[in-house]
Amino acid sequence: MSLKSEIDSAIKEAMKAKDTDALRALRGIKSLILLAETSEGQQGELSKESEIKLLTKAAKQRKESLEVFKSQNRNDLADVESTELAIIEKFLPKQLSETEVTDKLKQIIANIGAKGAQDMGKVMGIATKEFAGMADGKMVSTLVKSLLGS
Is residue 150 pLDDT above 70, yes or no? Predict the structure, then answer.
């Protein structure tokens, strides 16, 4: 089942339940999908990778807004962002823990024979594809640096 149809069915459920917060978040996601599908150069439905990138970007935006609102003591707006973030995360793949990411990175480094900081680009290229939507890019980058000893 595509993300778009999952969102459509979730919208119907939210309407039946009269859950306005969920409905707002789901309609926002659907809007993002429709915009991406009709953007220039796009043909038809989005690929699974594109859907994950789209949701990851939306989740990241919500996290950043949440931090700003909390720092400004705007709990009313922070609650809205937090609710939307929770709904978006339901559609994202399970996030890997730091130890899981470290273990997989060690495998990647061993497979390509990376020796030091000069091989960081090679490792990051593979790791970015491997962890798409499942781990934060900053965390992956930090772990690669520490594992390669740079």
Answer: no
What domains are there in the chain, each with its CATH number? Answer: 3-90 (1.10.1510.10), 98-148 (1.10.10.410)
Q: In whole angstroms, give the CA distance from residue 90 to residue 14.
A: 14
The amino acid at residue 36 is A
Q: Scanning the structure block, which residue is given the tokens 């009709």?
A: 38
**CB contact at 8 A, 136 and 144:** no
Give the pLDDT confidence of 57-89 residue by residue, as tens digits: 898 899 999 999 999 999 999 999 999 999 998
DSSP notation for 90-127: HTSPPPPPHHHHHHHHHHHHHHHT--SGGGHHHHHHHH
